[in-house]
């Protein structure tokens, strides 16, 4: 086997949706049937080509494997699952006679079809990216089902690039998978490792044939303690898998990348001992391997993740370089790398000319981070003096940021400093329940939705016209009021009990808040993929946060003026606002969370004054930010739960506080959910068919609870019978006085046709369930 050296500087991955979301456009157009397959393939290839050219222009080498081949149409976990044939039996028909899967098969798994729900989607580590969860059973027939990753390597090769293909590694792939339906209770996907690794061996051979000299296997599963498998078992699996991959012939050199938390010496040594040639460690979230581990590791290259792939600050470049030098002084072969893939940050600060120049000078998006990597690599080759100017410039920017106006706002500081215990708690839950019963008079099994109604193209276009100055504020507001009136009337007609205004005024549930708070800025082109073709523009929280004036109140009161049923006010909670923004890194998150909480507390007070009796404070990201290391979890849950309570505990007894969580497994955090002290909580449950009910029962959960009965992630309309069935399951573990009937999440990504049909069935099913309860009483 040829031995090639690892590049001195590299990144673990690059945004793949395109600088102007070209891939999103192409995907949605293909799905709509508005373009042919060939046109889609061409657009996707265009994004890949532009990425390679850009990375080379920024200074990564064309032929030294420093450019990762990290593209994906929909999801990188799906791409790896397809490569090794991890296709569940319920989708067996997407495989052709040769066991291969094509483009439409890929999208069937990702998006489902009329009969089938798609693969489940869940959080990728502690990020706002969502991957598709492979389903693996005792019978899953692993085989090479798809060769697109090799084809992309060959495509790059033809254009003069030697790229480094990126796959999810075998251990992490299985750790992130779920057991296929019908698998025995004691079955764990990791049990199939020995059957899976030989298929990776074949895939590696294919990649080598296509011209890859290095392959990157992402094994962040090794750093997480939240995947339900103990550390020793994970290390044992790692040892077994990599010994076998190492001994394979005709393969690229192995680079195992880990990210999102500390790898730790033991896992580092396990990888080094099993013969992998390079190991990536996240030095933003974790620490460098110890001197002993480095000494014991032989000639393995350490790809030191010193540039933050998960946040947008320019950071302390001099400190990053010092870390590299220190590792080198210990005898390590070092490369400069990002801590994670850059898929979590936008492309380019230069695409944001509207940003204040001073703020912009503190930032580094993906392209700036590539520049930083190139600088550090040059420093490693030529010595510190060669990059002194760049290091000094970054230091000067950090100093400027520390003293800039708005970073500290003394009024905000005085308010958080004065907080006492009473600011974090409400009247007893029973007292509140009685007051709310009187105030609201809701039926048993009340029906409601989670907040958003379909964000139609028309709404987005009107908002864009308003942003461009093509229509004035009055016209835009008038349009939104019409939209709200329509949505309220629709809910009345459907017979829902608690009405929402539909959130048409919001571009995004976090960005909208950032736009209305001080201390934030927003981007115009700073798109980051959240899942599939869906993107967000995370806001930049750079200063102390406060709320200049009420902003949700006019919409909620307008909706309330149209109906005698209660309208639910709709806010995004402090933890979620932090989780889905780029947050200042110069103070503890808990401190920032309390500032956001106080801004929300002000809004809640104004909603109450305006006569809104139910207020939902969404915290879908509560589970997302849960630290991957158990030792850090208690502290996180303390400050996150406290910030929610700070936001909501100013509410009167009679005001019913709701919260909503989705996209996660909740078993692990039920105590924290209880600690939020919300009166009613809606959670995602339909896709896991009410699995959560068992957990709730185990914890003797005694508050209002709405486990979702309708999966809003696919256009499929759930039948009345199906929803009745789910309600029956729910009622086996939940007291009927506590149960609410609602979808899994907001309806913003859905169309009206399926939304109306589904909600009609939901209301109908609730009616039947109520009748049955009355009969049984
Ligand atoms: N921040 C955040 N994170 C989240 C969620 C969330 O809602 N927000 N939900 C969960 C799942 N993730 C999601 C992420 C994004 C979307 C989503 O729908 N995104 C939209 C964009 C939302 C947005 O910001 N829209 C803007 C800009 C819309 C736009 O693209 N306008 C066009 C013009 C209009 C058009 O032709 O469509 C343009 O600028 O070119 C607006 O409405 O104003 C999309 O990708 O399509 C849904 C779920 C978890 N994480
Ligand atoms: C991702 S959670 C979404 C909650 C929000 N209120 C909505 O309905 O869209
Ligand atoms: Zn949700």
UniProtKB/TrEMBL annotation:
Class in the EC hierarchy, top level: transferase
- In which family does this protein belong, per the annotation? Belongs to the vitamin-B12 independent methionine synthase family.
Give the record's cofactor note, including how many are bound.
Binds 2 Zn(2+) ions per subunit.
The Swiss-Prot or TrEMBL record annotates one GO molecular function as: 5-methyltetrahydropteroyltriglutamate-homocysteine S-methyltransferase activity
List the lineage, top down.
Bacteria, Bacillati, Actinomycetota, Actinomycetes, Micrococcales
Note the superkingdom of the native organism: Bacteria
Protein task: Catalyzes the transfer of a methyl group from 5-methyltetrahydrofolate to homocysteine resulting in methionine formation.
Residues annotated as binding L-methionine are: 450-452, 503, 618
The name this protein carries in UniProt is 5-methyltetrahydropteroyltriglutamate--homocysteine S-methyltransferase
């Amino acid at each position: 086997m040829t031995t090639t050296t690892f590049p001195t500087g590299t990144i673990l991955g690059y945004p793949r949706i395109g600088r102007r979301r070209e891939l999103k456009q192409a995907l949605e157009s293909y799905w709509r049937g508005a373009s042919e397959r060939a046109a889609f393939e061409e657009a996707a290839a265009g994004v890949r080509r532009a990425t390679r050219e850009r990375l080379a222009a920024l200074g990564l080498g064309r032929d030294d494997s420093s450019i990762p081949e990290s593209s994906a149409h929909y999801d990188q976990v799906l791409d790896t699952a397809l490569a090794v044939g991890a296709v569940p039996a319920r989708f067996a028909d997407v495989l052709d006679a040769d066991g291969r899967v094509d483009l439409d098969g890929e999208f069937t798994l990702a998006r489902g079809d009329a009969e089938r729900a798609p693969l489940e989607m869940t959080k990728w580590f502690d990020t706002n990216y969502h991957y598709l969860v492979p389903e693996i059973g005792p019978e899953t027939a692993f085989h090479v089902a798809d060769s697109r990753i090799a084809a992309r390597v060959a495509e790059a090769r033809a254009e003069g690039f030697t790229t480094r293909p990126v796959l999810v590694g075998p251990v992490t792939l299985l750790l992130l998978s779920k057991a296929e339906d019908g698998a025995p209770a004691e079955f764990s996907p990791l049990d199939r490792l020995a059957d899976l690794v030989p298929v990776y061996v074949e895939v590696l051979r294919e990649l080598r044939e296509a011209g890859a000299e290095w392959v990157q296997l992402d094994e962040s599963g090794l750093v997480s303690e939240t995947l339900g498998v103990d550390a020793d078992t994970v290390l044992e699996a790692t040892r077994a898998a990599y010994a076998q991959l190492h001994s394979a012939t005709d393969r690229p050199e192995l680079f195992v990348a880990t990210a999102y938390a500390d790898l730790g010496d033991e896992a580092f040594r396990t990888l080094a001992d099993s013969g992998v040639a390079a190991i990536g460690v996240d030095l933003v979230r974790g620490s460098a391997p110890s001197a002993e581990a480095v000494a014991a590791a032989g000639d393995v290259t350490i790809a030191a993740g010193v540039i933050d792939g998960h946040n947008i600050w320019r950071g302390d470049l001099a400190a990053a370089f010092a870390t590299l030098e220190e590792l080198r002084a210990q005898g390590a072969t070092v490369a400069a790398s990002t801590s994670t893939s850059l898929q979590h940050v936008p492309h380019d600060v230069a695409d944001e000319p509207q940003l204040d120049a001073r703020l912009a000078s503190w930032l580094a998006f993906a392209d700036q981070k590539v520049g930083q990597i190139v600088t550090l690599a040059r420093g490693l080759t030529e010595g510190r003096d060669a990059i002194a100017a760049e290091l000094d410039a970054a230091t000067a920017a950090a100093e400027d940021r520390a003293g800039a106006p708005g970073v500290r706002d003394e009024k905000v500081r005085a308010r958080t400093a004065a907080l006492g215990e009473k600011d974090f708690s409400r009247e007893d839950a029973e007292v509140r329940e009685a007051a709310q019963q009187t105030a609201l008079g809701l039926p048993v099994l009340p029906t409601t939705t989670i907040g958003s109604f379909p964000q139609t193209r028309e709404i987005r276009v009107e908002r864009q016209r308003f942003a461009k100055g093509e229509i004035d504020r009055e016209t835009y507001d008038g349009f939104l009021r019409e939209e709200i009136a329509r949505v309220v009337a629709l809910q009345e007609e459907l017979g829902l009990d608690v009405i929402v205004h539909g959130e048409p005024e919001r571009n995004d549930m976090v960005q909208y808040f950032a736009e209305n708070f001080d201390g934030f800025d927003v981007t115009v082109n700073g798109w980051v993929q959240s899942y599939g073709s869906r993107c967000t523009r995370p806001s930049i929280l750079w200063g102390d946060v406060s709320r200049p004036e009420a902003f949700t109140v006019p919409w909620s009161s307008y909706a309330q003026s149209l109906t005698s049923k209660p309208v639910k006010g709709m806010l995004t909670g402090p933890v979620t606002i932090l989780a889905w923004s780029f947050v200042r890194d110069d103070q503890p998150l808990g401190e920032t969370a309390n500032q956001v909480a106080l801004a929300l507390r002000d809004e809640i007070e104004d909603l109450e004054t305006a006569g809104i009796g139910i207020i939902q404070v969404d915290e879908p990201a509560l589970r997302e930010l849960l630290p991957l290391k158990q030792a850090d979890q208690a502290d996180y849950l303390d400050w996150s739960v406290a910030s929610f309570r700070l936001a909501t505990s100013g509410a009167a007894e009679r005001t019913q506080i709701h919260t909503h969580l989705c996209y996660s497994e909740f078993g692990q955090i039920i105590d924290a959910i209880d600690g939020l002290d919300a009166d009613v909580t809606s959670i995602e449950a339909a896709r896991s068919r009410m699995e959560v009910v068992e957990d709730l029962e185990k914890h003797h959960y005694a508050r209002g609870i709405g486990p979702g009965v309708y999966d809003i992630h696919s256009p499929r309309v759930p039948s009345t019978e199906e929803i009745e069935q789910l309600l029956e399951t729910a009622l086996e573990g939940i007291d009927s006085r506590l149960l609410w009937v609602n979808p899994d999440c907001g309806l913003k990504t859905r169309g009206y046709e399926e939304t109306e049909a589904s909600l009609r069935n939901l209301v109908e099913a609730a009616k039947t369930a109520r009748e049955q309860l009355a009969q049984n009483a």
